């Protein structure tokens, strides 16, 4: 993935840019991601927090429970409702791959929360699978 890329919401009210390579890219199949995406999973490029800059607009945020973080801060557009961000901490910032200007840049490395995956969710058999979070060092 290039070290500089952009993205935003469906209506254009929110725009962002990133200026680093992702720490990791993955597909999350947890029930929260299913509900919030309207699909079987959310594709995430997890970035260093300092590499993400909002260049237009002000996202709204909503917290959901997280076993790893206590809460999962998720960002969305207040105008069109597009989900843009998740897992926001001082160290990292999750970007939804669907919000990238070029979603083809996204290449997942593994699937997490496969224990919550739906039977009709046909995951890539080549990707490593984890029932919950990926263990440290994996």
**Count of helical stretches:** 1
Sheet with most strands:
7 strands, mixed
Q: How much beta, percentage-wise?
A: 35-45%
β-strand number = 10
CATH topology: Metal Binding Protein, Guanine Nucleotide Exchange Factor, Chain A
Spatial order of the strands forming the largest sheet:
6-7-8-9-4-3-10
What distance lies between the first and last C-alpha atoms, to the nearest angstrom?
A: 20 Å
- Overall pLDDT: 92
Structural class computed from helices and strand pairing: mainly beta
CATH class: Mainly Beta
Question: Architecture in CATH?
Answer: Beta Complex
* CA-atom Rg in angstroms: 14 Å
Which H/E pattern describes the elements?
A: EEEHEEEEEEE
Q: What coarse outline follows from CA principal-axis ratios?
A: globular
Structural domain tally: 1
Report low-confidence residues grouped into runs of 5 or more: none
Estimate the helix proportion, in percent. Answer: under 10%
Topology, pairings included?
Layout: E1 5-8, E2 15-18, E3 24-28, H1 31-37, E4 42-48, E5 52-56, E6 60-66, E7 70-76, E8 83-86, E9 92-96, E10 110-112
Parallel strand pairs: 3-10
Antiparallel strand pairs: 1-2, 2-5, 3-4, 4-9, 6-7, 7-8, 8-9
């Amino acid at each position: 993935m290039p070290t500089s890329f952009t993205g935003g919401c469906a209506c254009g009210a929110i725009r962002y840019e990133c200026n680093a390579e992702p720490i990791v890219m993955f597909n999350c199949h947890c029930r929260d991601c299913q509900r919030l995406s309207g699909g079987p999973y959310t594709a995430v490029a997890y970035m260093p927090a300092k590499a993400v800059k909002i260049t237009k607009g002000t996202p709204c945020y909503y917290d959901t429970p997280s076993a790893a973080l206590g809460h999962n801060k998720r960002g969305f557009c207040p105008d069109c409702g597009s989900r843009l961000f998740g897992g926001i901490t001082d160290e990292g910032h999750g970007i939804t791959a669907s919000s990238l200007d070029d979603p083809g840049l996204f290449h997942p490395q593994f699937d997490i929360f496969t224990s919550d995956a739906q039977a009709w969710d046909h995951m890539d058999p080549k990707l490593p699978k984890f029932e919950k979070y990926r263990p440290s060092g994996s």
